[in-house]
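Bit of a strange request maybe. I'm writing a small parser for structure token strings and I need a real example to test against, not something I typed by hand. Could someone generate the tokens for this chain?
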Amino acid sequence: MAFEGRRPAMVQTSVVKEVGRRIRHLRLSRAGPRMTQEDLSERARISVSFLSMIERGERSPHLETLAKIAEALEVRLADLFTSDQGDEGLEPVFKPLLEACRKYNLGKRDVDRLVGGVRTMFA
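Reply from user aminoacidic:
Good idea to test on real output. This should exercise your parser:
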């Protein structure tokens, strides 16, 4: 997100909208059954109407609320602020693997082990 040259209020509005879009994207792109706003609001212990306003960028939630949403989505809090732009060139068949690595917060060491196991399996 490049915000140079923008006024602080515009930057804040843009960040709130982008975080809302990101939450919606994470909710809808999960593996398995589609997660509804009702499902997420129940897991995060917030109202459906509040979640809806957050997703539309109309409300700026507190950090504690964002932490509850991230926990309910089973992602890191930082994932609510980053986009998948780096994943655009990724072939769709590999996206579930990348999502699993993110979901389980695999570090470099874990990924190296996983790659080693795959190499052993298919060598």
